[in-house]
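Summary of Year 1 activities. Much of the first year was spent building the evaluation harness for sequence design. The harness presents a backbone, in tokenized form, and records the residue chosen at every position. We chose the following record to illustrate the format because it has been used consistently in internal testing since the harness was completed.
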């Protein structure tokens, strides 16, 4: 008789995480299920699957207590928790001058980013945001592979809690002061699909910057110019 395989669920919304799911789960044991919208995620739907773990590489909505208490939910945060709880960790780390961080895998609880830690792995913050997110997406599956193989018991977070504020689209306005490295970092940390680009406003026009690089005497970047609308 063939042993029954464990089922695993991955809930994610960003394209690089969906691509990593398609690329990496084929090489992992068990049956894998992908959820990409909040409408697909419910306690009833998960009960039908009966997953051993529910993984959240990136999720933009609060998960109901009925799910986090009934299932072992694992989320991933791009900071050395408890330092860096809260929103926009990549951008908050770069504006604070960090060149590297760790990716934390933690048990999801109702308090944001406060659950116990399964594992941590180092993560470079070099390059554009899109490149960092792609590296993190692959690193998630390295962590997942360890979790499903070893089933570690998560350990309570240790140290002082530092909470990052969630950034808003207006926070992408390029500061007036700073060195070339500061400007380069500001542009690159927002250079990813679905993220608001670094910008400046000039009259009725918005200038949005990406693909930045340091030069001998400053910074070069691509600029897209569009007319502002009422939502800007």
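For this record, the design step produced the sequence shown next.
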């Amino acid at each position: 008789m063939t042993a029954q395989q464990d089922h695993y669920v991955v809930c994610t919304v960003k394209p690089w995480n969906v691509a990593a799911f398609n690329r990496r789960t084929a090489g992992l044991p068990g049956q894998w299920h992908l959820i990409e919208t909040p409408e697909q995620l419910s306690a009833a739907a998960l009960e039908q699957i009966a997953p051993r773990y529910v993984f959240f590489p990136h999720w933009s909505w609060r998960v109901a207590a009925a799910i986090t208490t009934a299932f072992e939910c694992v989320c991933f945060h791009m900071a050395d928790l408890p330092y860096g709880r809260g929103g926009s960790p990549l951008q908050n780390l770069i504006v604070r001058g960090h060149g590297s961080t760790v990716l934390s895998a933690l048990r999801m609880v109702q308090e944001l980013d406060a659950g116990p830690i399964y594992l941590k792995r180092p993560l470079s913050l070099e390059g554009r945001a899109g490149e960092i997110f792609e590296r993190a997406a692959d690193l998630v599956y390295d962590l997942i592979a360890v979790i499903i193989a070893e089933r570690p018991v998560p350990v309570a977070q240790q140290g002082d809690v530092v909470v990052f504020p969630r950034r808003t689209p207006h926070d992408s306005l390029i500061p007036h002061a700073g060195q070339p490295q500061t400007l380069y970092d500001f542009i690159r940390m927002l250079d990813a699909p679905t993220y608001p680009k670094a910008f400046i406003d000039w009259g009725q026009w918005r200038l949005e910057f990406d693909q930045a690089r340091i030069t001998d005497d400053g910074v070069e970047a691509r600029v897209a110019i569009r007319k502002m609308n009422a939502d800007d």
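The chain has a mean pLDDT of 95. Quantitative recovery figures across the full test set are reported in Table 2.
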